[in-house]
Specification:
Order of helices and strands: HHHHHHHH
Mean pLDDT: 83
Number of strands: 0
Largest sheet: none
CATH superfamily of one domain: LemA-like domain
CATH topology of one domain: de novo design (two linked rop proteins)
Radius of gyration: 24 Å
Length: 203
């Protein structure tokens, strides 16, 4: 019996060393790091979504404001918030892409809204609108920081997943490459239109 326990203890030590040497512990650490970074991304996107209703309500108070621009912001927010943003999204490339596209569309709609506001001096001077604008700009900056941290965390995790011999550990334990943000695609979606600032205000 004592010899059996000795063999079991030795086997346990060997398995622990093998797992550690093949990157198992690194996968655990980096997976948690990716999930934490993703949670922060979701927090900042939610913060932005929460600002939109007040922003829209304030802009609606401006006479003759372009309704099409407002409608697109409202529709884009509805699409962005209709996607259930869960931790599992980081393991589903297709769902992740849809989430990114929806958030990129909202980014674009808000950019166009801010461009159009330049034609409305009264709205630009509205203190409530200015406060919301500052909050929105701050949130966009936090989104950028959170996204960059997520991109870095995913890059580190994916390198481990693809590298030898840790790719063998990934196959055994089901660790797969995680999707990341594609800056080029979102930039195309969010590019604001050209605004003719020489044009007189419409109000």
């Amino acid at each position: 019996m004592g010899r059996m326990r000795g063999w079991m203890s030795a086997a346990l030590v060997l398995v622990t060393l093998l797992l550690g040497g093949c990157g198992y512990n690194d996968f655990q650490r980096l997976d948690e790091q990716v999930n934490a970074a993703w949670s922060e991304v979701l927090n900042q996107y939610q913060r932005r979504a929460d600002l939109v209703p007040n922003l829209v309500a304030t802009v609606k108070g401006e006479a003759n404001f372009e309704q099409e621009t407002l409608s697109k912001v409202i529709e884009a927010r509805a699409r962005a918030t209709s996607i259930q943003a869960t931790p599992e999204l980081v393991n589903n490339p297709e769902a992740f892409q849809k989430f990114q596209a929806a958030q990129g569309e909202l980014t674009g709609a808000l950019s166009r809204l801010m461009a159009v506001v330049e034609n409305y001096p009264n709205l630009k001077a509205n203190q409530a609108f200015q406060d919301l604008r500052v909050q929105l700009e701050g949130t966009e900056n936090r989104i950028t920081v959170a996204r960059n941290r997520y991109i870095k965390a995913v890059q580190e995790y994916n390198v481990l997943t693809r590298s030898f011999p840790t790719n063998l550990t990934a196959m055994i334990f089901g660790y797969k490459v995680k999707p990341s943000f594609t800056v080029a695609d979102e930039a195309a979606i969010s590019a604001p239109p050209k605004v003719d600032f020489g044009k007189p205000a419409t109000n």
